[in-house]
Input
Amino acid sequence: MTRIFVVKQTVWTERSFGRSVKFFPLIGAIIGSICAGIVGLLNFMTSGALPSIVGAVGFASLILLTGGIHCDGLMDSADGLFSGREREKILDIMKDSRAGSFGVVSMILIAMLDVAALTELARLSTAQLCAAIFASPIIGRLMMVATIGLFPYARPEGMGKAFAKFTTRRTIIFAAVEAAALIAVLLFVDVKLFVTAIAATLTASFVTWRFATFATEKIGGVTGDIYGAVTTLSETFALITFAFATVL
Output
């Protein structure tokens, strides 16, 4: 999930792998806290004079901490789902490590939206900027948990299969309560930021439902790449929601 290693794990089981799903929002909070610290400090040091640089650094920090694994899922998903091929060919394309035109275009669009949203937030308020970049990874990983638990897995096997096998409705509820508790930290900063985070979660939920449903119609379920795509899309739309909230 990240490039942060707590222990060196060389052996894993499906059970231990699958049971980690309920802690995904907590991982999002760790990522968000680190990125918020980076962009918040940078925006403070530049007195808000370089919002575009702050926005780019914020986007880069999110990718560097995760190793870009979820962006890779987005690109693979775009290449396969928009290829216009049959189910089996789509799955083959998604498994191909090479990036196609649809994947590249999708990543460019996401990068543009992320940097634009973060730039607007940096221009207006450091508090809103930090709140957005703290909450969006939490929301993104909550949406991943929901996708794992609510949609069938499309492949007979794969790394994502371990997630799906041990994820139940109870897992989703646990992750939702966990995410709500983490986002509630924003209440100590500004109630409006907490309300915006709730709105961002609802927006991300709609995007997740539509995208996962679209994938299920195409290939009969979701895959590990779809999990990554959902996380990336949810983070982006969460950031956009925070940006729009600044003008309301």
